[in-house]
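Fill in residues.
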């Protein structure tokens, strides 16, 4: 039996309708931006394996640091104990995080980083003696798949069965160009009404919404209003962190700094599962008390796992190299050039770009048409040896920073091929079953 068949007999995959999904592609090795399947085919990982990979697969430097850590200390309980990797990583994170962040609380993925931030915000107001109940969030946002994170995320088909169990935030529109004033008004109404504990947002780019982008100037105004009305601010940088948007954090583009920042995905360069929530001293101090009830009672078995922290430290070493910084600037420039070319093409509705993130939105004639089209585009990409997962009618690129010029060329060529499929100037017969999930 093949590996894919053995998988099919026993594994339940994420976001996957197991009845209709094609067999998964068995990947046996990775190197740089490439993944190699069992049958020897190579794929350019243009989506950084769900947005996590920064420096390429099986990076030798990260591998070495992880191996050393594994042979020294693999894990230790993080209540009552600590270890060098957690402390050093926290120190280094604080040194690069937006100004004002002073404490790191570790967890183990992006959703838990968000849960921790929400709990910090709600309990903060409880602890200071003025409880506030409401959270403000963007209507199309995505903050994770656990219940708190789902609550502050878009109400979509993905979460529909759970709607009765989710708490209700105040949703405001994403301030995309042209909608800025409307969003500011919406936020002001909620802010003036009061009882708002926090505003959680994906800064500058909403990933799962389809790489929807808005300007840093409007984010600054939203954050200013929050500060004026004593609303805590939570930047969910799980996707935007570590250079994706052209600066280390998307929050680096704004003057008003968040009270809390959620990190995961690129936090370990895409090597290990790790989450972190940072906060400023104001939040932290509200939990200091002789009254034990003011403690943040939250933790995970693998909190601050030493191997994950070692991977994070190694990834930071690589991220801060001048070469890597040069690579992210180069990718941004190439994306910009491609965007200019792509914008003029038929059926291309919009091309968005922020740093190393590029999104091409095609004109959608109807959603069901595009679900089918999405499957075709996905299969077409795979056939070309490029992993590009459409979000509806949107194709996006968020590559590892080590991607070569030739590989980028191939990714762009594949997107142009997709545009030709959509305009009918090119024909491609997709396999009967495809593996597209979301
Ligand atoms: C992926 C993502 C999350 C959830 O992270 P997981 O590690 O998948 O739980 C939260 N927020 C944003 C912005 C994300 O992109």
């Amino acid at each position: 039996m093949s590996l894919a068949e053995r998988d099919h007999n026993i594994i339940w995959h994420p976001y996957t309708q197991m009845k209709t999904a094609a067999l998964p592609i068995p990947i046996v090795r990775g190197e740089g931006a490439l993944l190699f399947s069992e049958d020897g085919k190579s794929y350019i990982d243009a989506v950084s394996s769900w947005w996590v990979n920064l420096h390429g697969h099986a990076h030798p430097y990260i591998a070495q640091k992880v191996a050393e850590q594994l042979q020294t200390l693999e894990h230790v309980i993080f209540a009552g104990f600590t270890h060098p990797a957690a402390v050093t990583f926290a120190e280094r994170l604080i040194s690069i995080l937006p100004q004002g962040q002073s404490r790191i609380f570790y967890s183990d993925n992006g959703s838990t980083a968000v849960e921790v931030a929400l709990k910090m915000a709600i309990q903060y107001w409880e602890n200071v003696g003025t409880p506030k109940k409401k959270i403000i969030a963007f209507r199309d946002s995505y903050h994770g798949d656990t219940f708190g994170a789902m609550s502050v995320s878009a109400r979509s088909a993905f979460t529909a069965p759970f709607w009765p169990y989710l708490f209700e935030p105040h949703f405001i529109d994403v301030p995309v160009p042209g909608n800025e004033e409307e969003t500011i008004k919406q936020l002001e109404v909620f802010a003036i009404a009061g009882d708002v504990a926090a505003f959680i947002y994906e800064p500058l780019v909403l990933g799962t919404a389809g790489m929807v982008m808005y300007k840093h100037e409007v984010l600054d105004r939203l954050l200013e209003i929050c500060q004026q009305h004593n609303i805590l601010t939570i930047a969910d940088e799980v996707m935007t962190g570590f250079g994706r948007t052209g600066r280390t954090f998307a929050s680096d583009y704004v003057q008003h700094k968040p009270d809390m920042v959620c990190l995961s995905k690129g936090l370990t360069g895409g090597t290990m599962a790790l989450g972190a929530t940072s906060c400023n001293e104001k939040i932290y101090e509200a939990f200091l008390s002789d009254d034990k009830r003011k403690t943040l009672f939250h933790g995970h078995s693998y909190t601050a796992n030493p191997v994950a922290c070692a991977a994070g430290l190694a990834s930071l070493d690589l991220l801060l190299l001048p070469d890597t910084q040069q690579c992210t600037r180069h990718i941004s420039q190439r994306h910009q050039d491609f965007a200019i070319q792509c914008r003029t093409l038929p059926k291309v509705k919009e091309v968005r770009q922020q740093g190393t993130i590029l999104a091409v939105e095609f004109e959608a004639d109807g959603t069901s048409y595009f679900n089918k089209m999405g499957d075709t585009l996905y299969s077409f990409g795979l056939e070309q040896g490029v992993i590009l997962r459409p979000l509806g009618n949107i194709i996006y690129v968020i590559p590892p920073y080590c991607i070569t010029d030739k590989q980028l060329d191939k990714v762009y060529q594949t997107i142009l091929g997709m545009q030709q499929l959509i305009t009918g100037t090119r024909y491609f017969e997709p396999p009967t079953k495809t593996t597209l999930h979301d």
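The CA atoms of residues 334 and 408 lie 8 Å apart.
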